[in-house]
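Researcher: Quick one. two chains, 409 residues in total.
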Amino acid sequence: MTTAADHIDPAARAEALASLLIERGLVDEAVMDNFIKTYEQSVGPMNGAKVVARAWTDPEYRGRLLADGTAAIAELGFKGPQGEHIVVLENTPDTHHVVVCTLCSCYPWPVLGLPPSWYKDPSYRSRIVREPRAVLAEFGLELGEDVAIRVFDSSSEVRYMVLPRRPAGTEGLSEEELAALVTRDAMVGVAEVAAP
Amino acid sequence: MGGRQGFGHVLPLTAAPPFAEPWEGKAFALALLSIRAAGANTPAFRYALERVPPGDYLASYYHRWLIASQIMLADSGVLSAEQVAARAARMTGADQEEPEAPELHKPQMPSGGPGNLRTVDTPPAFAVGDRVRTADLHARGHTRLPGYVRRRTGTVTAIRPAAIFPDSAALFEGENPQHCYAVEFDSRELWGAGAEPFRLSIDLYEPYLERVT
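Model:
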């Protein structure tokens, strides 16, 4: 298979590009470090988990979230690049939603952060649109034959987040305790939220 | 990638930090800043990703972001590949002369909305419930009409916000905003009678669609 002719290793390529762009005044080192820190520390699935926990405990919020995901998510302070238009897909006992980007790795950054390896891998990107039930089973999610599957391929500027089902036996939990149960994988639709 | 075969078992659902190594974080930030430097043109970056040599593309996610940044910067005349190679060699102590920077030829992309969302003055050609067929497009450049939904019939289920047309913007030909629709397909329309039963929804720009009468 064809590879780049220059054989520069990734770390060296990053240093060379950074050095040239900084020299040209196109990249500010502090801005670069700030981007890295932001996505390492403050933007991640803990944001989406708060959205889910609010939707589970506040029916009016849930209604707003399903009607206009972007606005309802912004109510909790989450917005930014790759979140300009977010549609929330609600899983029910009858219908299970799962999200992919077959063309690249589009993902709702403000609520889920940067995508995990499995989401970016060709195995997931190629197969989930062709045999979702088999792929979900490989991940450990066995859906009943009566559950309809809907796959969403993020091919435009719209980003998708799944609102997973609230697990049984969590009636007494606070919003904060509920948020701690919600996983990234459940908000992409490859897992369910497990009861505590 | 949709529908391609041979990639095997999916990876485990492990929790890991976003960047496995420090250079990956740098690659991520450099890509975002390179996109800015090349006119805030995310379709141009996605098109560059599609031109990363296949071996590199499959080998490493963030290395392909670096190579794509380099391709996009070369497209817009910000930096040449030769400059990057020479700088990398110099940084390891080689006595390498550096070529001059190329000439900028980046058309300015006007910024008319948050990210790539725009408004379109003409009304949408299709409505929710319309049956549509995807065009037989074989773009020479970039497109967001994946091969696996080409020449297939589905139903419009939602009108999405209009956005800049990736096929035009990726080539620095301007924003050319278009209406966009969620189109739903039955799995058997995509993969034949023996397919697992499910429905697939994908967002498609108006020029990709024809009405089924």
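Chain B has a mean pLDDT of 92.
Researcher: Thanks, that's what I needed.
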